[in-house]
């Protein structure tokens, strides 16, 4: 038996912008495949963010819901400079819920939503 689990991110017309932002901000990231609808929006894309698999789509159907901070992408960094660089890129035009700081459980931690409403938690690995 084989089981494959991937995070699925659904946008409404902004998937390409999100893909471009995420793959440029996170080191070792790539677009594996992409299929477009006739209007140019993304039917389905498979991307990796530092080796982790994601499916990204533009929904052709309008929904009454969007992303929630209760579900977030948690990223652990070994270098503070990389954490800060990724944070600065991804948090632009977003909303910071917990500013970059020492919260006791981590010397450097930040929790924010990006410009698309996707929630991110960035954490510096303990030494």
From TrEMBL:
Q: Which residues form the PhnB-like domain?
A: 5-122
| Alphabetized Pfam families for the sequence | 3-dmu-9_3-mt (PF06983)
What SUPFAM superfamilies would the database entry show? Answer: Glyoxalase/Bleomycin resistance protein/Dihydroxybiphenyl dioxygenase
InterPro entries given in the database record: 3_dmu_93_MTrfase, Glyas_Bleomycin-R_OHBP_Dase, PhnB-like
Q: Which PANTHER family match?
A: PHNB-LIKE DOMAIN-CONTAINING PROTEIN (PTHR33990:SF4), PROTEIN YJDN-RELATED (PTHR33990)
Q: What is this protein called?
A: VOC family protein
Q: Which organism is it from?
A: Vibrio paucivorans
């Amino acid at each position: 038996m084989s089981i494959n689990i991937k995070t699925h991110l659904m946008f409404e017309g902004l998937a390409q912008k999100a893909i471009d932002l995420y793959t440029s901000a996170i080191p070792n990231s790539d677009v594996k495949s992409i299929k477009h609808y006739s209007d140019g929006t993304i039917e389905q894309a498979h991307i990796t963010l530092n080796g982790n698999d994601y499916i990204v789509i533009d929904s052709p159907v309008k929904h009454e819901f969007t992303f929630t901070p209760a579900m977030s992408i948690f990223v652990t960094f070994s270098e503070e400079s990389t954490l800060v660089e990724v944070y600065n890129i991804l948090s632009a035009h977003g909303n910071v819920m917990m500013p970059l700081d020492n919260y006791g459980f981590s010397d450097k931690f930040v929790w924010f939503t990006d410009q698309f409403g996707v929630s991110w938690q960035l954490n510096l690995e303990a030494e």
